Amino acid sequence: MSFENTFCPSPWFHMRINNSGSYEYCRWQAKSGSTETRINFDHNIRSQSPLQYFRQVMSPIREAMLQGTPPSACSDCYVMEQHHKTSGRQRQLLKVGVQTSNFAKTMLSSPMLPDFKHSENSQGSTERTVSDWQIDLGNFCNSACVFCNPESSSRIATEFKRMGLIDQVPAANWCEDPESLARFVSDLTQCQSIRYLHFIGGETLITPGFVKILEAVIAAGLAQDITVGFTTNLTVWDDHVIDLLTQFHQVNLGMSVEALDPVNDYVRWPGVLSTTRELLDRWVAVAQAHNWMTQLRITPTCLTIHRLTTVYDYAWQHNLAVESCNFLTDPEFLRISVLPQSQRDIIRDQLQTWIDHHPVHSGSQVINTRDPHRAREQIVQDAASYVHLLTHVEDESHRLPDLVNYLKRLEASRGNSVLDYVPEYESFLRSAGL
Q1: DSSP character for 22?
Q2: Backbone φ/ψ region at 385: left (φ over 0), alpha (ψ -120 to 50), beta
Q3: What is the domain count for the chain?
Q4: Quick check: is 31 in a domain?
Q5: Is residue 289 part of a domain?
């Protein structure tokens, strides 16, 4: 891969704190192992300041980027670009004025060019500070989505332990430790360069650390210059949080939904479609009233890809973007590629038909996927990425028995049946042992 297809400016202004309190260099980096295995006690909020990690530990990352040898953990972005889906790398480039379609010229005019040159001459070091944070608040969650894991959902952690799938639930999240939270908030509020805070859970709205951080940033007088991003699972409503959010410069609201169809209840268990739809409408109304940026956040799996057009229909009607962080890779048995080829072909044709019936004036690729003026272009672009994936992805239908075994164990705990939600899958699921 060429330099222009691998370079990412993210390590010059962005970093992440994960559920364990350990630092990571990117919100999009591919994960290996559970959060437990991602605990790094040397580079953790309990032992090191964020600025030390950003300036010292991340220097080799920046140096590698400048040499055209990005870390292997950047692979998710390259896969997304391969299937014409906007990647995190492309978004971060846009923030510094670099266009992938005109890389060389826009790189030379980027206001960040002096910073890149400084790092190039000093083994990746930088004098900058973090302006863009991904803050993982932990796994405190009231949902147990079938594609989720104990590190991201306390509810599924409890269920997995009861089922014998894990020996113990994950350790307490970093923001449940008052000392760690206070240290992080102190570092955060002393940094005048912060412009973006993106929160994920668990479910952010029921995680106490979310409100505490928002209140601290407001009290420090920084909110008017900061954009807050977060995602809610459309199960709760909190007027106090909304009041806090209105005090920030901008809000990027993500609303998680897999399908506006009963299968959403099965996949985002124990969701209730009527409640999901009611809260979706309420959040959209509030966002429109305050001119917030909004997105429908999706995690398409083999169980929901055939109902994805229901989400696109709602988004088209309300002029909303639709986006996933990346293509699902874990759990492996829930990948879209697990579907038999014949089923993938049906879904691909269904998505292509939807695209054909929703014409847009498509120019350049939509990189700023939150731009409301190009929302419909973005929806079609997202749909096209799944058409491309379904067309070119390697067949993994050999994983169907693993999928069936997993669903049978879940259903024994939950008292439901996948066939009540996806009856058209019965034939191949039965053949795999359902």
Answers
A1: B
A2: alpha
A3: 1
A4: yes
A5: no
C-alpha span between 258 and 246 (Å, rounded): 27
Maximum Cα interatomic distance, the chain, rounded to a whole number of Å: 61
Q: Which domain holds residue 63?
A: 3-120
Asked whether 214 and 242 are in contact (CB, 8 A), the reply is no
Q: Which helix (H) or strand (E) is 136 found in, with range?
A: strand 132-136
Could you list the beta-strand ranges (E) of 313-404.
321-323
Condensed to tens digits (0 to 9), the pLDDT of residues 184-193 reads: 999 998 888 9
pTM above 0.90, yes or no: yes
Comparing CA positions, the residue from 339, 234, 358 lying closest to residue 296 is: 234
Q: Is the pLDDT of residue 33 over 50?
A: no
Q: Is 116 helix (H, G, I), strand (E, B) or coil?
A: helix
In a domain, 111, yes or no: yes
Give yes or no for residue 31 having a pLDDT over 70. Answer: no
Distance of alpha carbon 269 from alpha carbon 290, whole angstroms: 31
Per the structure block, which two tokens stand in for 123? 């083994």
Q: Are 59 and 123 in contact (CB under 8 A)?
A: yes
For 329, the token pair is 């890779």
- Let me know if residue 258 belongs to a domain: no
Query: What pLDDT score was predicted for residue 326?
Result: 83
* CA-wise closest residue to 138 among 294, 12, 305, 17: 17
Angle between helices 113-120 and 59-66 (to 10 degrees): 100
Under DSSP, the state recorded for 18 is -
Radius of gyration for the alpha carbons in the chain, expressed in angstroms and rounded = 21
Contacts of 141 (CB under 8 A, 6+ apart): 148, 152, 153, 154, 155, 156, 201, 202, 203, 206, 233
Which two structure tokens, joined as six digits, stand for 215? 């209140």
End-to-end CA distance of the chain: 43
